Amino acid sequence: MVPDLKPKSKKRKQADDDEEPEPATFRAPVETLEMLSDDEGGEDAASDDGQVDEFPEIDAASDSEDEDVVEGSEPDEEDNEGTDEEDFEEEDSDDSMDRDIFPKPKTIISDITGHPKRVYPEIEPDYDSDSSTEDAPNRVGDVPMHWYDDLPHVGYDMDGKKVLRPARGDELDKFLQTVEDPSAWTSAFDKTAQMDKPLSAEELDIIRRLYGNEVPDAGYDPYEPMTEWFTGKGKEEVMPLSAAPEPKRRWVPSKWEKQKVMKIVRAIRQGRIIPSKLKTTSKKEFYAIWSEPSTSHAPPLPAPKPRLPTNAESYNPPEEYLPTEAERAEWEALDPEDRERDYLPKKHSALRLVPAYDRFIKERFNRQLDLYLAPRIQRVKLNIDPSTLIPKLPSPQSLKPFPNYKSLKFTHSSRARCISVSPDGAWVISGDEGGVVSLWEVNVGREVKRWKFEGKIGALEWCPRTDLSYFVVGIEEALHFVVPPNLSPSVLLLTQNLLAPATLPPAPETPSPVKWVTPPTSSWSSDTAILTVHLPQSSGLPKQITWHRRGDYMATVSGGGTQGGVWMHQITRRHSQAPFKKIRGAVQLVLFHPLKPHFFVATQQYVRIYNLSEQKLLKTLTPGIKWISSMDVHPSGDHLIVGGYDRKLCWFDLELSDKPYKILRYHTRAIRSLAFHPTYPLFASSSDDGAIQVFHSRVYNDLMTDPLIVPLKILRGHTVKEGLGVLQVKWCARQPWLVSGGADGTVGLWCS
Amino acid sequence: MGRLRQKGKTGAAKAYVTRTSAIKKLQCSLADFRRLCILKGIFPREPRSRKRANKGSSAPTSFYYAKDIAYLAHEPVLKKLREHKAFAKKLSRALGRGEWSDAKNLEDNKPVYRLDHIIKERYPTFIDAVRDIDDALSMVFLFASLPSNARLPPSLIENCSRLAAEWQLYVMHNKSLRKTFLSIKGIYYQAEIMDQTVTWLVPYQFTQSIPADVDVRVMLTFLELYQTLLGFVYFKLYTDSGLIYPPPLDVKKDEGGAGVGAFSLQSMSHPVAPAAPKTKAVEIDGRKVSGKDVRQAIKSLTGESEINGGDVDMQNAESNPMEVDEEFVPQQSTSDPQSTASLTTLKALAALPQSLTTSLFSPYSFYLSRETSRPIFEFIVRSFGGRVGWPSSSGSGSPYDESDDSITHVIIDRPLVERTDETLEERERRSRRKYIQPQWVVDCINAGKILLEEPYAQGKNLPPHLSPFGEYEGAYDPAVGLAGQAAEESESEEEDVVIPDAEEEDVGQLAEKSALQAAATSNDATSLRAAELAAEVAGVDYGTFEKEVRKSRKKSKAAPADGAEDGEQDMNKMMMSNKQKKLYERMKYSEKKKASERATLEGKKQQLQKQKRREAKTG
């Protein structure tokens, strides 16, 4: 109830001012004085404050905030009144004598009593009159009316009786009332009475003035003439305020000013200060800028011009340029920067129907961005026919013969992993993963003989000697020397003498882990091996068997074991040795040089050439292949081809460099096998894509001429099975025929 | 021992600087740097190795030549920009303190940069400048059509429209307009100035609004440069053709909407001889004739003879060496001033076709209907020597009104409406004039001759409007496609008709047919002859036999005749190096793309024609 003191005191002052006339009015009826003063507080609050407070309530839609303000202020007011009463009493007693602002009483002789009596003038109920005469039945005071919300009454009257809540209709009634009652729009809700009360004419006038932004009080004149107290005629001050004599500086010209001015004058004379230039016109003057010779500086490159418009950009293009629905949808689906064209062709039947192009400014802007933000590169435009890029090579037709069709097919039950062709080119042996080795004729494809070994066949190779005939089969940790059937007796005898001599050569001094075993003569048959070489334990499957051209030495590469798994076997001495004590990298392949005592060893990424007689490394070739799969040496011994699982084929000119002379990549899958033809200028490569590629490879004796490599034919016929295609290719010695073994179990013969 | 080489002291690391370091070096803001780059024409470069240029970092940055930045470092404009920065500080300080007179003083002495030296530097010769005004013209024409707002002061717009008008005036005066193309983006004009083709794009007359994603500051900086450039170029062009620059503007006419007509070209009373004539040009009645003009003239001559009919190949073969001759004749004349005899013949040769193309419309008077755009057609028609009038609703300054009797053509863009309330006089006038759609004017210019008015008459469906600039070589040509396709189509039509007849004929013809097929596929004269004889025996007339031959040839062509060759080619591709292979693939790709583009267009065309024919049959 006592929020702060300052507003209170202020209010109080106001209230004082307001109520000052009151004592004068109520002094005369002395006998009612007490009662009046008693009542006044309440009445005052009800009338004065009620009036002020109820203004916001004229608006039916006034929000609760206003209410709060009103409520908040009400206790204040009440307090005010409380204190006022006391003040009022005091003022009453002492001030009444000397104040002459109050209306003066007239003293007249009373008709009744005959005594003089003071008669005060009639009180006009105007702005500053009191409104105590108005009757307000509800004397509840300035309490928040919501306290009575749940009660049937709204307060108490002067006698302490309940003032019942007036009957209030529902919304419809209210509405009807507003329609029927002509004074409804000039009535406002009276909070204390809890009903609508018509506004008086004065109140309406105040409202009208407030709306009109006028002073609310009708009697106030804002344009009152000013009362002149100190100015105007006859009120001038004649006497000086100070008696001090006038200073000299009032009438002597200033020395310092003169100095300053002179300084400026001198500066102007000397031209240090220039009077401000005439404002130059903003328009630039143009002159013949190119009339004087230009500098020797080279001009910058002109910016590329934008592309000129094509037919599609026309306002009336031929109809075929108009996009179809699908094309339009595709164009709209693309991002603006991905679009090939920045507009969609559109046809307008007349020029007047062509609208403004909405991207005009954007395109100009993009062009400017290009001009100053895009790096420029001068490109040489190749104006050549792309077909000229393809190298001109002799036609394959002129390079016949070469294999170009499959003449016959021999089928294994499992993958035909390895094949070998006899040195005379009449027989083929093929081995599969089931351990079956078949011998068949090249000309007709008839199987002559079949051997069965235990485990996979890793490698097969026919001995290159022509005076005798046998072949070697490599299976798990063993090499079997097998003599084919139907040999002429002399050859058979010679072969048997070589492989199983009556007197064994002397055993080497150092015991070798490789055992050479010949079964007893009695158990010889065409089904079994005549000689078996047992490779050391856990050396795995021999991956490759390769013969020296003389047919005495043989090298094998096994998957596991020490010393890279490379073993060199000498048939006549029945002796095996490991050529390398230690070798870096896993050995993939080995090869004998056809003419020189050189030995090629292919590890995973390099090919090393060793001189066997001098026992030293000659060269390391770097084909740049990730994993070498195959390798073959040209019969001249000067060229080497290396194939890899990464589809590359490298041609090395051994005299030239240890980098490949040519790298070809044409297979779509890993290269599996490579083979040079011993007599014809041909080589072939097979791959996991099931294709065999035959090349013509002419090598010149002239060192200055590069070898000629011409692709001749792609032989297709093998099916790819489990990702494996053609596993091995071999050439027939005297014919341009090719034998290929595939993962599908077929061995094909390709004839010219 | 040699000198120790430190990393990053030579090569790309030294030659390139990143944008950030360039700004740091120039000690200016990014906005100022951008302004400088635009004005000076400095653009980023692409180093061969980004890593090497950026100290091993491969972050995406833009590189500039270190030398370019070094030149920028003592650029007067940069100095002015710095001064302006100081000025802006002083001004804001004065304003903040309320020192109004100081602020006014500062404002009066505001640093302003000029771009003359930059123009001279970027375009050392006049030809360089002319070659590069394409963008400038497009920009000026664009801004001339923009509404002014807070960012675009009216003075700027006014200056741009003035520059645009001056350019049009010059082109009209010198009759140097060559080609025009009405596109959906705007109107492309191509003029030939000093042997350089200048192409510019003018938007259609609509109010453009600047989109939000466009940086106006960049455009305004460019415009600043372009205005200066165009001013100098115009000065040179005007003075070289003996005119006063700038041409005085008649304010009253301009307010009346006279457009180009508000300017009046004034020739100099005492023409100043150019200080250093750079291009020695032959003059024909006050106009320069360049080698290109002559070539064009010859081309148009040969073009005429083509139209006349005659073996075109022969003509072309003859004209080629002539071109070569023409190339060097003017050079000879410049080196040897006495050999004027040859020049006169050249003049005589060149004068005829030149006048034909550039004064194409000189015998005609045009009247623009009020819905046609006056600025466009006034410019085009007047550039080709025609007279043009327009109703007062299109602006003031029309030399004659609609009732003038000299009017030969009315450019009208309205659908045809039957008018009943025509007076006799009006009808008579109407019959005397030709009412054509605007496209006729443009197509005439591009064709270099007056076309038939018939297809372009009012209310007709217009023939397609093609680009005069041509397309890349081997692109689909709608004009050629029309003729060739039509012949083939008719042929296939006939075939359709013929085939049922053939089936009716007896079986004996089958043998003949097979022989014929063999003949066609073998392309052998003797076997063809034999087949012909066989056909004669079978009683087939020669016409049908010919058709059969053609048909079977077509079929055999469709079959892969050169499959074997293709295979060989494919195999030979193995022997290409990787680099070559990639290049080949790229070229093939673009070739294939072009071919497919062409094929789709041709396919669409065929379909359209078929549809049309079907409609014609049914309807």
UniProtKB/TrEMBL annotation, chain A:
Lineage: Eukaryota, Fungi, Dikarya, Basidiomycota, Agaricomycotina
Record InterPro entries: BOP1/Erb1 (IPR028598), BOP1_N_dom (IPR012953), WD40/YVTN_repeat-like_dom_sf (IPR015943), WD40_repeat_dom_sf (IPR036322), WD40_rpt (IPR001680)
Keywords: Nucleus, Repeat, Ribosome biogenesis, rRNA processing, WD repeat
Record bears the keyword Zinc-finger: no
One GO location term (cellular component): nucleoplasm
Name the UniProt record assigns to this protein: Ribosome biogenesis protein ERB1
Recorded family membership: Belongs to the WD repeat BOP1/ERB1 family.
Gene this chain is encoded by: ERB1
PROSITE patterns according to UniProt: WD_REPEATS_2
Superkingdom assignment: Eukaryota
Segments for region (Disordered): 1-141, 295-315
Subcellular location field: Nucleus, Nucleolus; Nucleus, Nucleoplasm
GO molecular function annotations of the record: ribonucleoprotein complex binding
Function according to Swiss-Prot or TrEMBL: Component of the NOP7 complex, which is required for maturation of the 25S and 5.8S ribosomal RNAs and formation of the 60S ribosome.
BOP1 N-terminal domain: residues covered: 148-403
Automatic annotation (TrEMBL), chain B:
Location of this chain's protein in the cell: Nucleus, Nucleolus; Nucleus, Nucleoplasm
InterPro entries: BRCT_dom, BRCT_dom_sf, PES
Keyword flag Cytoplasm: no
Keyword annotations: Nucleus, Ribosome biogenesis, rRNA processing
TM spans (from-to): none
The organism's place on the tree of life at top rank: Eukaryota
Predominant localisation class: nucleus
Region described as Disordered: 546-619
GO BP: maturation of 5.8S rRNA from tricistronic rRNA transcript (SSU-rRNA, 5.8S rRNA, LSU-rRNA); maturation of LSU-rRNA from tricistronic rRNA transcript (SSU-rRNA, 5.8S rRNA, LSU-rRNA)
GO cellular component: nucleoplasm; PeBoW complex; preribosome, large subunit precursor
SUPFAM superfamilies in the cross-refs: BRCT domain
Ranges for domain BRCT: 356-458
Regions of compositional bias (Basic and acidic residues) in chain numbering: 582-605
Gene Ontology terms for molecular function: ribonucleoprotein complex binding; RNA binding
Biased composition (Basic residues): 610-619
Family: Belongs to the pescadillo family.
Subunit structure: Component of the NOP7 complex, composed of ERB1, NOP7 and YTM1. Within the NOP7 complex ERB1 appears to interact directly with NOP7 and YTM1. The NOP7 complex also associates with the 66S pre-ribosome.
Entry function: Component of the NOP7 complex, which is required for maturation of the 25S and 5.8S ribosomal RNAs and formation of the 60S ribosome.
Full protein name: Pescadillo homolog
